[in-house]
Amino acid sequence: MSDDWVTNERSYRGISIRLARRYLEKLGGDIVDDEHVEADEWRASLSAEKIAIGPSLSLTEVTVIFEGHPDALDKLVERFSQKAMRAGG
Fold it and tell me: Are strands 30-33 and 36-38 parallel, antiparallel or unpaired?
């Protein structure tokens, strides 16, 4: 990782790790394994957990830790968030 890279952590409800991985791949990343996607100027680590919504409902919350060059990361997070919000919202 380069010294000028930054980190941005975001959580998205209602999508799966599989779908998040696919979005990141469509945004120019290469799937490294089930929880990691990388490109030249960024990488993303994925994790998921079930979140209780009320007494009887739960949904998946995917947390993505984006790391990369600030210019590339700003664009990536914005584009990924738009895709994730449409899917989960």
Answer: antiparallel
What digits encode the pLDDT tens for the residues 3-43?
A: 699 999 999 998 999 999 999 999 999 999 999 999 999 99
State the DSSP string of 15-59. --HHHHHHHHHHTT-EEEETTEEE-SSEEEEEEEEEEEETTTEEE
> How does DSSP classify residue 3?
T
**pLDDT band, residue 53 (cuts 50/70/90):** confident
Q: What is the pLDDT of residue 54?
A: 86
Cβ–Cβ < 8 Å for 63, 53? no
Give the sign of the dihedral formed by CA 77, CA 6, CA 24, CA 71: positive
